[in-house]
Design brief:
The chain is an all-alpha fold and about 400 residues long. It is built from 16 helices and no strands.
Length: about 400
C-alpha cells in the first residue's frame, strides 16, 4: 500500500505551507498554559489564572467564525498579515500587565484582545487541503490525519517548552514565545498565495449560516464538550504535578496525552475505512470517555502519565472524522467558516473547562478537575448518540475512501 503521507508532501506547495502552519500553530498549545503559569508565577491564584486563560480562549472563539468568514471572502494572506501584527502587540500588553504589577482586572481586557487577534490556523490549513485535493490525489482523510498528528506534535512539544520557559527562565517567557511562533509562522503562511483557496466575495458566497445546516449543531455541541474535556484536563495536569512537587513536569503530562493522540492519528490516516464517518466519530467518543474515567483516581505522577497516554489514543480517531463530517456537510464557499465554528466550539469548551477546572482545583484539588473532564466526555457521548441521525442524513459525500 502506497504511503499516503509521502503523497501529501508531493502536492504542489505542501512542502512550504506544512512547516509554516506548524510553526504558527505552536502557540495554540502554549498560550493558555503559558497564561496560567505566568499568572500563578506572579503569586496569583489558580482560579484567577484559569479565568484569565478562559477569557483569552473565549475571545478567540467568539471572533474565530467572523475572521474565518473574512478569510473565505478575502483570502488567507490578506487577513493574516494585519491580524497577527495586532496579535504581537496584544501579547506584549498582556505580559506587561502581569509582570509590572498592574491590578488583576487589567489582565482580562489584555487577554481578550490577545484572543481576538489570534488566527484559526487549523481551519485555514484544512480548508487549504480541501481545495488542493478537490481534483484528486491522496484521500482527504489522510490530509486531515496528518494535520491532527501535527496538532498533537504541537501539543507534545508546546506544553513542555512553555513549562520549562515559565518555570526555569521567567514566568512570562512562555507567553512571549507563543506570540513569536504565531507571528513568524503566520507571516510565512500568508506569503504562500499559490496554494491557498480562492477568495469568494459575498456575492459568490451568500446563503444561510453554516450553523443552520442540518446536523451541524450536533457536531458543534460535541466539539464544545470535547473542549471542556481538554481544558479541564490541562489545568488538572498542571495542578496535579504541582501537588506532587513536580510542577515543571506538568507539560510532560500533557505531552503524554497528545503523544497518544498523535500515535493513533498516524495509524488512522493509513487505513482504508469501511465504517461511516459518523460511526467512527461515535466509537471514538466512547473510547475517549472510557479512558478518562481512571484519571481522577490516580495518586502517582508516573502512573498518571501512562494512563493519560492511553486516554489520548482516542483523541485523533474522534477529531478526524468530526472534521470530516463538517467538511462533508458544508458548502465549499463556506468551508473555512464551518471549520472555524468547529474550532470556536472547542475554544469555548476549553475556556469553560479550564475555568471550571481551576475553581474545582482551588476547592478540592486536581482530581476534581479530572472528574469533571470525564463528566464532559459523557455529555459528548450522549450528544453524539442522540443527535447522530441529524448529520447521518445530511452528509453530501463520504470522503473516507
Amino acid at each position: 500500500m502506497a504511503n499516503p503521507y509521502r503523497a501529501l508532501f508531493a502536492v504542489p506547495g505542501a512542502r512550504a505551507f506544512i512547516p509554516a502552519s506548524f510553526v504558527g500553530r505552536m502557540s495554540m498549545s502554549m498560550l493558555g498554559i503559558g497564561i496560567v503559569l505566568m499568572v500563578t508565577g506572579t503569586g496569583r491564584s489558580y482560579g484567577l489564572a484559569g479565568a484569565v486563560s478562559a477569557t483569552c480562549a473565549l475571545s478567540w472563539a467568539a471572533f474565530s467564525p467572523f475572521t474565518s468568514r473574512l478569510v473565505d471572502r478575502h483570502g488567507q494572506g490578506r487577513v493574516l498579515v494585519p491580524m497577527v501584527t495586532a496579535n504581537a502587540f496584544m501579547i506584549v500588553a498582556l505580559i506587561m500587565c502581569a509582570e509590572l504589577g498592574a491590578p488583576d482586572w487589567t489582565l482580562f481586557p489584555a487577554a481578550a484582545l490577545a484572543g481576538i487577534t489570534s488566527p484559526n490556523l487549523s481551519a485555514m490549513i484544512r480548508a487549504r487541503w480541501s481545495h488542493l485535493l478537490a481534483g484528486g490525489g491522496p484521500p482527504l482523510h489522510s490530509a486531515y490525519s496528518l494535520e491532527s498528528v501535527l496538532d498533537e506534535v504541537v501539543f507534545v512539544c508546546g506544553p513542555m517548552l512553555v513549562s520549562v520557559l515559565a518555570t526555569v527562565i521567567y514566568p512570562a517567557a512562555g507567553v512571549l514565545a507563543a506570540g513569536l511562533f504565531t507571528l513568524v509562522g503566520c507571516l510565512a503562511l500568508a506569503g504562500q498565495r499559490a496554494s491557498e483557496p480562492p477568495a469568494r466575495p459575498r456575492e459568490q458566497g451568500g446563503g444561510r449560516s453554516v450553523l443552520r445546516l442540518r446536523g451541524m449543531p450536533v457536531v458543534i455541541t460535541v466539539f464544545l464538550m470535547l473542549g471542556m474535556v481538554f481544558g479541564s484536563a490541562d489545568v488538572g495536569a498542571i495542578a496535579f504535578a504541582d501537588e506532587q512537587g513536580r510542577k515543571a513536569l506538568s507539560g510532560a503530562v500533557l505531552a503524554c496525552f497528545a503523544l497518544g493522540s498523535g500515535t493513533a492519528g498516524l495509524w488512522y490516516g493509513t487505513r482504508h475505512w469501511k465504517r461511516s464517518l459518523s460511526a467512527r466519530f461515535r466509537i471514538g467518543l466512547g473510547l475517549l470517555t472510557a479512558g478518562l474515567l481512571p484519571l481522577g483516581l490516580i495518586g502517582s505522577l508516573p502512573l498518571l502519565m501512562v494512563m493519560i497516554f492511553f486516554a489520548g489514543l482516542a483523541i485523533s480517531p474522534t477529531i478526524i472524522p468530526a472534521y470530516g463530517l463538517v467538511e462533508a456537510m458544508t458548502p465549499e464557499r463556506q468551508l473555512t467558516e464551518g471549520l472555524g465554528w468547529s474550532g470556536a466550539a472547542i475554544g469555548v469548551g476549553v475556556a469553560l473547562g479550564s475555568s471550571i477546572g481551576g475553581q474545582l482545583i482551588d476547592l478540592s484539588g486536581a482530581s476534581a478537575s479530572f472528574t469533571f473532564a470525564f463528566a464532559a466526555g459523557l455529555a459528548a457521548v450522549l450528544a453524539g448518540l442522540l443527535g447522530g441521525s441529524r448529520f447521518d442524513n445530511k452528509i453530501k459525500h463520504e470522503f473516507s475512501s
